[in-house]
Design a protein that fits this description.
FAD/NAD(P)-binding domain, 448 residues, Enolase-like, domain 1, five-stranded antiparallel β-sheet, globular, 3 domains, seven-stranded mixed β-sheet, NAD, binds nicotinamide-adenine-dinucleotide, alpha/beta, oxidoreductase activity, binds flavin-adenine dinucleotide, FAD/NAD-bd_sf, FAD, flavoprotein
């Protein structure tokens, strides 16, 4: 007979969203279970943000040294990919066990297996031959996304982002299909690790949603590092050629490479939960939710990557939504979810980070844009950065409402801008704060 378990709330998915929800619910005294079918911790720490930025750390150390070649440093630094990968693995391999230990320490129940609804009030959780019935008063869907598939002949020969982040050897040459976050971040890493990288971009521009000038600057800098961009180009077929792969491009050229990475977007896992049986609507953008993150079944909530919300699908927004859902279920809030400004970043070489009103929308909204080339400012001369740019958007009162930065410290600088935006700081009020001099923050006074 199937074991049957009862909880106040069942959270499906142990990524950043599900864990944030579970912790918030438990803190308010709810009896909570988290169900996970793969790696505890989800995408971000196991095969997403964290491993990527661990590998990038080695790349950045090399870039920083290269910037000083013949200008104070000698001897080139080369990336030993297998060792860098081993270092990454030492961190990621402990994530699932640490996640489970943390659930145990918090008194949150956990169940391994694939969850599917049987009806509007019950789940079946399958782990091999074992099936468990879970009944809960409320459910939180936090099952994330998976990489999009491709339908071209030979698509099965491509690897996805998870496999790239575990590549044992860096091939001499690779193709990356896509022009989004993952394509540009991976091109930055692979090129620095010695691979000749070909990026196939379907349209005429990379990184839609980011400042077009800065995206172009990133393409230019990566091109100078040996990355080949092919715009308005698709891969039409992939075939095996010994241990290599041959990639046919839409304009007729054939590339022979060791690895082909597929970075063509991600799709929500909403189609794998038998949601029809629970009266929950979803479409290709994820599970439909209202302003309380309730689905079409008011006892079933969706949050994070799987939820069809207007914000970027990121770890930060997933955690925010997970915490909100917990508060709503706990009765700690009745208000609709209200998002703060959402920062976005491409962790390339260099990085592009942005928050608030983008410069290209500023004029239409009556805001002013200040453009800065900070390359020769003391902070960046010190680091021998190739180019550091910022676009800062101010409202009529001189308060900062948006910022976009390009440079190797763009992420950290934008973090400062987030605080300034949330505190409605202007060129006048910023003078009331003291920052450590010299540091990146001590430039803020010159940027408003
Ligand atoms: C390569 C890459 C790099 C990224 N880099 C960044 C970055 O730098 N910064 C950033 O903010 N974001 C980044 N992201 C996005 C970030 O990883 C996600 O936004 C975040 O992980 C979403 O969290 P989540 O909990 O909603 O989903 P996930 O982390 O995907 O967790 C969902 C979990 O649900 C489980 N699950 C799915 N279906 C079932 C089921 N039926 N039963 C049980 N369990 C199930 C999955 O196994 C998974 O563990 C990156 C993503 C990728 C792929
Ligand atoms: N730094 C970060 O915060 C970060 C990093 C990586 C991923 N992510 C998250 O993961 C998501 C997925 O990243 P992504 O780069 O896969 O998606 P993306 O949506 O950023 O980019 C997908 C790209 O693939 C192209 N494309 C789609 N189908 C194609 C096809 N058949 N052939 C060729 N090109 C095709 C699109 O035009 C686009 O350029 C992001 O939207 C983001 O939510 C975030």
């Amino acid at each position: 007979m199937m074991e049957s378990l009862k909880f106040d709330v069942a959270v499906i998915g142990a990524g950043p969203t599900g864990l944030a929800a579970a912790n918030g619910l438990k803190a308010a005294g709810k009896k909570v279970v988290v169900i996970e079918q793969y790696l505890w911790g989800g995408t971000c720490p196991n095969y997403g943000c964290d491993p990527k930025k661990l590998l990038l750390a080695g790349v950045e150390a090399r870039e920083a040294a290269l910037a000083f070649q013949d200008d104070g440093l000698q001897a080139t630094v080369e990336i030993d990919w297998p060792k860098l990968m081993e270092r990454k693995n030492r961190y990621t391999q402990t994530v699932p066990t640490r996640t489970v230990a943390s659930l145990d320490a918090s008194g949150i129940a956990h169940l391994y297996g694939k969850a599917e609804f049987i009806d509007a009030k019950q789940l079946k959780v399958t782990d091999g031959d074992t099936e468990t019935l879970v009944q809960a008063s409320d459910y939180v869907l936090a099952v994330g996304q998976r990489p999009n598939a491709m339908t071209i002949p030979g698509a099965e020969l491509t690897i996805d982002s998870e496999r790239f982040l575990s590549l044992a050897e860096m091939p001499d040459e690779m193709v990356i299909i896509g022009g989004g976050y993952i394509a540009l971040e991976f091109a930055s890493i692979a090129a620095a690790a010695g691979s000749k990288v070909h990026v196939l971009v379907r349209g005429s521009q990379v990184l839609k949603g980011f400042d077009a000038d800065f995206a172009e600057e990133l393409v230019e800098q990566l091109s100078d590092r040996g990355v080949h961009f092919y715009f308005d180009t698709e891969a039409t077929a992939i075939t095996k050629a010994g241990t290599n792969l041959k990639v046919e491009l839409s304009f007729g050229t054939v590339l022979e490479v060791g690895v082909v990475v597929r970075a063509v977007g991600r799709q929500a896992n909403s189609d794998r939960l038998a949601l029809e049986k629970a009266g929950v609507d979803y479409n290709q953008h994820g599970v439909n939710v209202n302003e309380y993150l309730q689905t079409t079944n008011s006892h079933i909530f969706a949050a994070g990557d799987v939820a069809n919300t207007p914000v970027a699908r990121l770890t930060s927004t997933g955690g925010f939504e997970g915490r909100y859902v917990a508060q709503f279920i706990n009765g700690q809030t009745k208000a609709a979810i209200a998002y703060p400004p959402v920062p976005i970043t491409v962790f390339g070489t260099p990085k592009i980070a942005a928050v608030g009103i983008p410069a290209d929308q500023a004029e239409a909204k009556g805001y002013t844009v200040k453009n800065f080339d900070m390359t020769n400012w003391y902070s960046y001369y010190r680091l021998a950065e190739r180019k550091v740019l910022a676009k800062v958007v101010l409202n009529a009162a001189g308060e900062i409402v948006g910022a976009t930065v390009l440079g190797s410290h763009a992420d950290e600088l934008v973090n400062y801008f987030i605080d300034l935006i949330n505190r409605h700081e202007s060129d006048v009020t910023i003078q009331k704060h003291l920052y450590i001099y010299p540091s990146l923050a001590s430039d803020l006074g010159y940027l408003l």
